[in-house]
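Fig. S4 source data, part A: sequence.
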Amino acid sequence: MPLSSFARVQLAHLPTPLEPLTRLSQMLGGPRIYIKRDDCTGLAGGGNKTRKLEFLMGDALEKACDFILTAGGLQSNHARQTAAAAAKLGLDCELFLESVPGTPSSDYDRNGNLLLDRLLGAGVQRCPGDGSLLTRMEARAEELRREGRTPYVVPVGGSSGIGALGYADCALELIKQCQAQELEPDHIWMATGSGGTQAGLLAGLALAQSKVPLTGINVSATEEVQKAKLRPVLAETFGLLGLALPDLDDVICDENFYLPGYGIPNEGTLEAIRLLAVSEAILLDPVYSGKAMAGLIARIREGAFSSRDTVVFLHSGGAAALFAYETLL
């Protein structure tokens, strides 16, 4: 089924830029690095979830829903963009946000995305980090139904087949931009968390019959756990588009850069954030893009790429979270 067959609302500033990281490439002495600026999608600070929300909110409106529920960590970029999408469309919104052990406490508990969630008018339910987010959210949805409301539950990270369609579309957009700039990328590099962005990109590359390899840098889990999260999203996304499901053994989920855990930047992450800021005036985030860039920098230093290679790095946004990490930065 073509992407145009699915309900969609316009929320993002598209296409996002594809631009060279000239100074960083020179400093690293490795491949030519280009960056796909999905931090510039425009919705309340931008980020990758806006593409997913175009399809998720389209689905919600098509089903006449009037109350949006979603969940994530306390500094969730996804929650902030969901709150923004709901505000823009005149829908009520409630966020279920859990504490993340090991994160800096003072700013993390009140600044960054959490501040913006409240500014955007979302209700915030703070939850313990005990794995109860989905149960609490579903219970709230049932309560709303009894009150005569029509809730729409957006999965964590917007990572469903419907949400991942946003990144199938992004892959097609990226391919057009590469053709216009006469680029032939040898690799696409990204952060992978809840799995929807990676699943969508893989689906879009399959639609375009592109063989460019895609590496996901895990931000929260081992390869085994990450692929277990990715498997159902891949199946749903490829099923919606009528595509043959790829072999999961061929999907790259690199586990070498996520420790000490979700939401906790390591030294490589902090170096990557500082390096991109001073070399390219681009702000990465401490949870996703910082870890993915740390992985790319490490692989370049190990000699994984030649100077003739071209790598496209997907910037998934999240700079608002920097303000919650002031003590580390």
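Fig. S4 source data, part B ends here. Residues 32 and 305 are 10 Å apart (CA to CA).
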